[in-house]
Amino acid sequence: MKRVLVALLAVGLVAAAACSGDSGDAAEEGPVKYGFLNGQSGDYGPWGHWALAAAEVAVEELNAGGGVLGRSVELVVEDNGSTPEGAVSGFAELTEVDGIHALGGIESDGMIAIFDTVHELQIPTICSTCGTTELDNTGGDMVFRIIPSDTDNGIVGAQVARDEGYRNVAMLVELSEGTESPANVFKAVFTEQMGGSVTADVRFNAGETTYAAQVAQAFESGPDAVYIAAGFETGVPLLNEWQRRGYSDIPLILTTDLLSPEIAEIISGVEGASAIVGATAYDTENNPAWDAYVPRFEAKIGDPPEIAFYDAWQYDQYIILGLATAKAGTTDGAAVAAAIPEIANPPGVEVFSYAQGLAELEAGNDIDYHGTTSNMNLNSVGNLLSPVMAVIHVQDGDWAVRENIELDPTLVKPS
Amino acid sequence: MQNVVFGIVTGSILAVATLGFALVRQTENFLNIAHAQMMALGAFVGVVLVDTYGMNIFLAGAITVVGLGALGVVLSAVFFQPVRHQGGTVLLFTSIGLALMMYAAILALFGTQARFYPDVSGGLHRFAGIGIATNELVIIGLAFGSIAALQIFLNSTGLGRAIRAVASNDDLARVRGVPVRTVSNTIWFISSAFGAMAGVMLGVLGAVNTEIGWHNILIVLAAAVLGGLRSITGVILAGLLLGIMMDVSALFIPTAYRPVVAFGVLVAVLILRPEGILSVQRRKDAVVA
Questions:
Q1: DSSP-based three-state secondary structure for B175
Q2: Where are the domains of chain B?
Q3: Per-position b or e across A82-119, b if 16+ CB within 10 A of its CB
Q4: Which of A270, A254, A257 has the alpha carbon at shortest distance from A169?
């Protein structure tokens, strides 16, 4: 019986090997498949429909431009539920069942969870919504990030606090990679480089029955302002508690994960409340990529793009993947990944769309893609060189850019 | 003192949830893990009635509690009664299976997106510098009102006495002609209704998400063990004690360790007083001695 089992196993392995040999050829036929592994539900759910719409706008542009490598482009969507577990199972589905050629849409926690597998399977991945500091020094060969690092977000949060004149800040921080990452940088920069003090550093788990004790601990510690780094699902009950307890006279400094309409609605409904976010923004001034993107996004979803709602990065990543695949002349993962910095960085003809870039590539020219959100120039570890930052606040019940700012060059990443 | 008030609110919800759990344990003799999913279902049904259908929160809560109480009776008839004779272990694993099925049903029916009850806090009241919101007062009042009503029902009605008889000695009660099936249905109704009520209360104070049941089942279990599974008063005290200890601990240790406080207490009780803080059995033994 044992020998029969061994023989069956051997036959199975041979069959599997044969099948895998066929799939290599099949990978160069049929549509080019780009995965969209994103939190359509869970903490990132509020941004989900904008993110997907932007990705679809990009893929429509790729197909309207003749497709990639003369093949149509298919966007394969997986909801990761905004969790690392969802990212791992979603990535397995995208690679093993759908056979994607490249990946976009992923957030911090999920990116860290699949980081090693992405490299093992050689799937070029653009991280459009992950700010984790884990990627500050580890990307650049298969994983690229086109959004500012949480290091930048932490620094800009501290910079905004300093510029508003806050000297004593309390912190409310949800325990997760995506929220602790900017909060830790904020704390280090605010206390060590600006001489500010943290009156209470309250860390809490998601899913608590109530956040009354945590909110009281932070707001009763005598702060000039309270810095809140939390996901959306935790942020709403947290801010309901803030409103319920009557702490509206203490200003809030929020992180980008809380830039949702629901949060803006809560804050705007409280008289005298003030909340600001030091966040990354879009490159909207004299930018043909932005000008072309806005009406197409609006036509698809019925609303214009909202500042810092992650959608435009979702668009940019697929234009980059399309151009990189065209530059590589193949869907081979290593070749596409190697082409990403080549089409995103100078030297080359500056282009603002897929069609423009493809025409230049076909003419034998190098290109330098400039996206809707920034010039897309990447450093040696695949991080954005010059993100656009802004102070965002609540105005007329919605988030709006108060002013664009530049990161203070005297503030440095904490060691 | 403010944190003690927070703890009383948390403890009130915990007491309601745990009471439903302990009732089934007392009469059916197994740990009903699916109880927490009834809490989750209650939170979702309530928020849909309020948010989607614009129903008044109290009416929505009442419909949810009665509806899910009835659902509990149906679920017990379908899943637990057929295997009841096989003992506690089989019933325990059946309840785990039912919990997973209910969780899947919640995902399918309501999706994975978090939902929120409209803010019904109704303002903050201050007594000697301690703040308490109207909805927190309502939660405490409803919790203790429901528990008191249950106590009166168990002590002053024929069916209540029958339930106590079954809880005390199932076989003897059957021999003495106690309508065991009616008692069982009543217990499942009350247990599920209490679970649903706790779920609505949790949702009103926090967020309604699909993990709300799993997040709370171990705390409920801790309160049940702490209170002694055969004592209603013990369960109420345990719920309050755990709630207060978790919220007061925030003053001394990082709030991320709140669950650790609950389970620290649980482990201590299991070591020092495994029958619970108010044990009927211990008092009986003392009388016999």
A1: helix
A2: 2-112+132-210
A3: bbbebbbebbeebbeeeebbbbbbbbbbbbbbbbeebb
A4: A254
| B contacts of A266 (beta carbons < 8 Å) | 119
pLDDT band of residue B252 (cuts 50, 70, 90) is: confident
- Cβ of B10 and A209 within 8 Å? yes
Please determine, for the modelled complex, whether the ipTM score is greater than 0.85: no
Q: Which residues in chain B are closer than 8 Å to A210, comparing Cβ atoms?
A: 6, 9-10, 205-206
Domains of chain A listed by start with CATH number: 30-149+286-369 (3.40.50.2300), 151-281+389-405 (3.40.50.2300)
pTM of the model: 0.75
Please compute the mean of the pLDDT values over residues A93-103 and round it to a whole number: 96
Q: Is residue B208 helix, strand or coil?
A: strand
Q: Which residues of B114-143 are buried (b: 16+ CB within 10 A; e: fewer)?
A: bbbbebebeeeeeeeeebbbebbebbbebb
Neighbour-count burial of A7, counting CB atoms closer than 10 A to its CB (0-12 exposed, 13-18 middle, 19+ buried): exposed
Q: Residue B99 has which token pair?
A: 């919990």
Residue A253 identity (one-letter amino acid) = I
Which of A82, A85, A171, A210 would best serve as a mutation to test chain B binding (most B beta carbons within 10 A)? A210
What confidence tier does B103 reach under pLDDT thresholds 50, 70, 90? very high
